[in-house]
Structures are given as structure tokens and as C-alpha cells.
Amino acid sequence: MATSKLKFSEEELVAALQRNERVAFEFLYDHYSGALYNIILKTLRDEERAADVLQETFLKIWKNIASYNPVKGRLFTWILNIARNGAIDAARVEGRKPAMDEIDDRLAKIEPDVSESEQQTSSEMKAIVDMLRPERKILIDMAYFQGYTHEEIANELGIPLGTVKSRMRTALQELKQYFTV
Questions:
Q1: Predicted model pTM
Q2: Which of 155, 172, 154 is nearest to 163 (CA)?
Q3: Burial 84-103 (b: 16+ CB within 10 A, else e)
Q4: Local structure of residue 11 (DSSP, 8 states)
Q5: How far apart are the two ends of the chain, measured CA to CA in Å?
Q6: CB of 3 within 8 A of CB of 26?
Q7: How far apart are CA 51 and CA 148, in angstroms?
Q8: What is the 3-state secondary structure (H, E, C) of 51-102?
């Protein structure tokens, strides 16, 4: 049976992946590899290296799927973090910073094959992040989408570390108010 005709809920997909079902991994690759590759490529800007990191990403997913906890977040977020961290590590091994792209580009292309409600959630998240002041928005982008440490952000932007930390704390507090019930 072709994986393109299969449909999994996220819960079913996770369960099948944790049972090491080949069809589930094929489905995961078919439906998520394009989005992950784009994120990796934006960070590395090298197609060959991005393909290598994508392969390493799926190997890590396969080896570590048992550690995925749906209580902590969605499956796509978990695999996206594996891909992003792999790309950042690869960029650092090459002795350079990951490429800086606008947060809007990252958020606009992040979720593959999502339902209408998930697209709405992604759009709402983008709108919420967009409401931050520019000096806070860039910090969220650098820290959470590009993997910079607070010290690296301070050096890159030429601002004191204490300013980075206080702006980051304020930005997170602002974002938190939208997610608490």
C-alpha cells in the first residue's frame, strides 16, 4: 500500500512509529521531509549538506522516537527541533553562524500538510509573535528559530547581555499571556 494514500492521526502515527512500523516511517518521511529540508537548507545554504543533515535527522527520529512525549508538544515540533538543532550543529562545525532569515519566512513555511485548524493555529502564532516590538521579535527569532545563545545574541546585535536577557524575559512574558487559560 502506498504511503501517500494512508492517513494517520498524530496519535496513530506516533504509536506506529514507536512500534517501528516501516510504513509509518515512510509516511513520516513523505509528509515531513520537504518542510524539514527547507528549514535545514535555510540554515545551511548548502543543498548537499542539507540533504546529509536531513538524513541524519530521520536517523535520530528513528532512534529516539521512544523518547517523544506528546504531553510536551506536537510531533512536528519535536522533529522540527531535531532538524533545526542538526542544522545549527552542522553550521557551527563549519565555523560559521546559521543564516539569519526573517521570522515571517520561517513561520510561513513551517507546517506541511496541515489541517485547516492547524493552519489557523500557525497563523495565530505568527500574528502573536508579530505583535512583539521589533527588538523583542528579533530576539525570539534568534534564540528559538536560529539557536543562538543569549551571549551570541548580545555579541551579534552589539547590546549588553543583561539587555538581551531582560528583553527576552519580557518577550516571553508577553507571549505567555496568549497561551495561558
A1: 0.55
A2: 154
A3: bebbbebbeeeeebbeeeeb
A4: H
A5: 43
A6: yes
A7: 23
A8: HHHHHHHHHHHHHHHHHCCCCCCCHHHHHHHHHHHHHHHHHHHCCCCCCCCC
Distance CA 35, CA 41 (A): 10
Cell (9 digits) for 61: 527520529
Q: Which residues contact 14 (CB under 8 A, 6 or more apart)?
A: 65, 68, 70, 75
Are the C-beta atoms of residues 82 and 61 closer than 8 Å to each other?
A: yes
Model pLDDT for residues 70-116, shown as the tens digit of each residue: 888 888 888 988 998 898 888 888 765 555 443 344 444 444 444 44
Greatest distance between any 2 Cα atoms in the chain: 57
> Cα dihedral sign for 164, 167, 171, 172?
positive
Residue written as cell 545554504? 45
Q: Could you tell me what percentage of the chain is helix, strand and coil, using 3-state DSSP and rounding each to the nearest 5? A: 75, 0, 25
DSSP helix/strand/coil, 115: coil
Distance of CA 2 to the CA centre of its chain: 27
Q: How far apart are CA 109 and CA 52, in angstroms?
A: 21
CA 105 to CA 165: how far, in whole Å?
Answer: 25
Distance of alpha carbon 145 from alpha carbon 114, whole angstroms: 20
